[in-house]
Amino acid sequence: MATRKLLLLPGDGIGPETMTEVEKLIAAMNREHATGFETETALVGGAAWEAHKVSLRDADMALAHAADAILFGAVGGPRWDGIPYEHRPEAGLLRLRKELQLFANLRPAICYPALADASSLKRELVDGLDILIVRELTGGVYFGEPKEIRDLGNGQKRAIDTQVYDTYEIERIARAGFDFARTRRNKVTSMEKRNVMKSGLYWNEVVTRIHREEYPDVQLEHMLADAGGMQLVRRPKQFDVILTDNLFGDLLSDIAAMLTGSLGMLPSASLGAPDATTGMRRAMYEPVHGSAPDIAGKGVANPIAMFASFGMCLRYSFNMIEEADRLERAIARVLASGLRTPDLAPEGAATVTTAAMGDAVVAAYLAD
Ligand code: IPM
Ligand code: MG
User: Fold this and answer.
1) In whole angstroms, what is the distance from residue 110 CA to residue 118 CA?
2) CA-to-CA dists, residue 103 to 136, 170, 281, 364, angstroms
3) Whose Cα sits closest to atom 9 in ligand 1?
4) How far apart are CA 79 and CA 330, in angstroms?
5) Where are the alpha helices (DSSP H) in 215-267?
6) Are strands 69-74 and 4-11 parallel, antiparallel or unpaired?
7) Catalytic annotation present for 359
8) Is 250 an annotated catalytic residue?
9) For 38, which DSSP code?
10) What pLDDT digit, counting tens, does each position of 246-261 carry?
11) pTM for the model
12) How close is the Cα of 288 to the center of ligand 2, in Å?
């Protein structure tokens, strides 16, 4: 039996409770279908700070290097607002992305027909929506140096973040965007701010060159990122793949998530380059929603983004396409049957708990 090593990092807020539901599915798959998943669990974020006074221990970083794939819940919350910046919960997540070189962040925004009415946009604008945001994840203003608050000595301070992209960083994320477009509707919209930023100008230039030299068969368009945000809420179905940098991708993916009915629906995959010998990519899978401290621990969180993130893990890390398809069908069926966590339910409608939603997805998976 093949062994598949998964590192689970539930983290903070609703991370642990949504991860628990996915663990039920993993156990059921091992039991019923001998899938051979081996899981190990470690602390990250505020939870790691409480226990070890760091956001991610070196020993747990080593586990991340050794795992075939990582499932990540969420990090952060107001409780840790006051701790040293370098130990804030988000630092653990950023360290994982950077050290594992997970430069390609895939954020698919799919609107299930059953949820079209839960969207803040009109049904006809979002029904059947299927966008893939390809966000650069290890560069740009998130990691650029200098990054500091400098004392100018005259009673003033200067806050500095640095937006920086090297050629190879833009080339590899552009290739990822074009490669994924070829498996979809073959269109890429690249978003930057070339009207204001040198990094935007250069991003545009490199993407244009990679397109001309390597992907002339793919349709490419460029959009300023602010206009892109506007178009996302005006006519979202015009997009297939949106290719963008770390910061714009963060913003645009939250917008795209909301189009689908709830932030609780959007999964993501963060991928590195394929290993030269094994062909396997380093990878981490994570819901886009974050820790949602306001609803944490109440058993009301929507576990679907966490399930869908595991679905991406089956597809991209283990090439278990049949199982990934089955899981997506299970989610669609459960939604079609009318089950709703509070984030998805219209005012006054009946809702179910995190655990009930999780049980339903596992049951639908096993029944398929
Ligand atoms: C995301 C999150 C993270 C980010 C935070 C938690 C650091 O918002 O994955 O979108 O900004 O990348
Ligand atoms: Mg974000």
Assistant:
1) 13
2) 6, 10, 11, 34
3) 288
4) 36
5) 225-234, 246-259
6) parallel
7) no
8) yes
9) E
10) 999 999 998 998 898 8
11) 0.95
12) 6
